[in-house]
Amino acid sequence: MNGLRRLEGTLRVQGSKNAALPILAAALLTPKSTIHNCPDLSDVAAAIHILEDLGCRCCREGSSVTVTADSCPQSFIADSLMREMRSSVVFLGAMVARCGKARISFPGGCELGPRPIDMHLSGLQKMGVFIRDDGGYLDCRAENGLHGARIALPFPSVGATENIMIAACTAKGTTEIHNAAREPEIGGLADFLNAAGARIRIAPDGTVFIEGVKQLHECEYTVIADRIAAATYLCAAAVSGGRLLLTGADPGHLTACIPLYEQAGCTVHIREDAIELQAPKRLGALPIVRTMPYPGFPTDAQAPFMAMSSLAAGTSVFVENIFENRYKHAGELARMGADIKLEGRVAVVEGTERLHGASVNCTDLRGGAALVVAALAAEGETVVREIRHIERGYEALEKNLSLLGADIRRVAED
Ligand code: EPZ
Q1: Dihedral sign of CA atoms 41, 47, 50, 54 in order
Q2: Is the minimum distance from the CB of 118 to ligand 1 under 6 angstroms?
Q3: Which of 162, 265, 322, 368 sits most deeply, having the most CB atoms within 10 A of its CB?
C-alpha cells in the first residue's frame, strides 16, 4: 500500500460477520433456511464447512446462503474445524438441541488472551446437558432432551447468550437469560430464530425469554449490517482526510462510535441507513475510550480507532475491559511511527503528525484492519502481511478501499 491518498466516495457496508456466524449454527435447527446478505469471509466459509461436515447441504448464490438440514445431522465436530474459529462453539447448543448430543473440542479464534467457555457450558448444563471432558474433547449429552432454565450470566457474554438462545428454542418450557449480552447481533439471531418459528422475546432490560417450541420450520432472513466493518471504514476515511458515504449501515448500532469521530473533528451526517463522514484537516485526540459490552464502545473497534488516534493532535487513552490481550497491534503500529505506551489494560497514544510505511504483520482480525487504516495515512509504502486474519472479517477490503481511491493491492507471497 502507498499512503497519503484521500478516500472519497460511497461504499455499501457488508453483512455482519458476528451476526451471520451464530445464525449459520442455528440453521441446524431448521429443515431449510436461506440467509441473505451473508458476507463472503473465511470465517463464514469455516462455518459452512462445519455444517457440511455435519451432513447439511449448503449453497451460496451471490450473497445468499441456503442451508438444508432436513435429515438428522452428525453430532461431532473435528478438532481441526473447531480450531478454525472461536464461534464454532456456538454449534454446541444447536447440536444438543437437534441431536441430543455433541462432541467438540475447545474452539480456536483470534488470540486475544484467555477465552474460556465456562458460561456456555454451565448454561447448557442448567438446561439438562451432561458434559464430560474426554481428553480434549467435550462429550455433551441430553438424552432426556433439554428443558427450560433460569440462567443468570456472570458477564454478558455474546457467545454464551447465543449458545443458550439456540439450545432453548426447542427445549421443554421457558428459558430466561439474565444479564444477557445486548449486542445487535443477539437481536439479529432472535429475529432469525423467530422467523423460523421460535418464540424469543427480548425485554427492554436485555433479559431474553425463550419459550420452547416443538420444532422450527423453513425460513428466510437478511443479516444486519456489520457495525464493526462500518466503524473501520469510517476510521479509514477519517485518517485519509477524505469523505465517505457509507450506505446499508445502521447508525443506531454505532451510537458509541459516532461521537468519537465528531470529537476527533470529523463532520458526521446520519441518515436512516447511511452515515456520511467528512474528515477535518487534522484529527483531534479522543477522550478516554473504554471498551464495554454493548451499548458501550465495542472492543472490536478499539484497534481501528487506535490507528486513527495515532495521527491525532494530542494524547488519546484507551482502556480495554473485555479481553486481556487485545493490544498486539500496538507494536506493529509503532513500526509505522505510532507512539503508543501500554500498561496492562491501558494504552496511551501520543498522536504524531505523520506515520511512515513499514513492513508489518497482522496479529489478529481487527489489529490487521488497524494496520491497513494506519497505512492509508503513512508516507511511503507499507507491506501488510498475514492478511488471512483480515479475510476472516472484511469482505473485499482492498477492492473497496481502492475503489475509494486508496493505492492498495494484494500480492501473493512465495
Ligand atoms: C464475540 O466473541 C465476538 N465474536 C467477538 O468478535 C467480540 O470481540 C466479542 O463477542 C465481544 O464483543 C463473535 O461474535 C463471533 P464474549 P465472544 O463471550 O462471544 C469472557 C471480532 O473481532 N468469557 O462476549 O467470544 C471472554 O474471555 C471478534 O469480530 C468467559 O470468561 O465474546 C471475554 O473476556 C473477536 N467465559 C469476555 O467474556 C465464557 O464462557 C467476552 O467474551 C465466555 C466468555
Answers
A1: negative
A2: yes
A3: 162
Across 262-266, average pLDDT: 98
The owner of cell 438424552 is: 143
The CA 237 to ligand 1 mean position distance, Å, reads 27
Q: Is 300 in the pocket of ligand 1 (CB under 6 A)?
A: yes
Please state the atom number of ligand 1 nearest to the C-alpha of residue 121: 40
CA-only gyration radius of the chain, Å: 21
Given a contact cutoff of 8 angstroms between Cβ atoms, the answer to whether 178 and 151 are in contact is yes
CA atoms in the 13 A half-sphere facing the CB of 160: 25
pTM: 0.97
State whether residue 164 is helix, strand or coil. helix
pLDDT at 13 over 60: yes
The continuous run of DSSP H or E covering 105 comes out as: strand 101-105
For residue 89 the three cell numbers come to: 462453539
228: left (phi over 0), alpha (psi -120 to 50) or beta: alpha
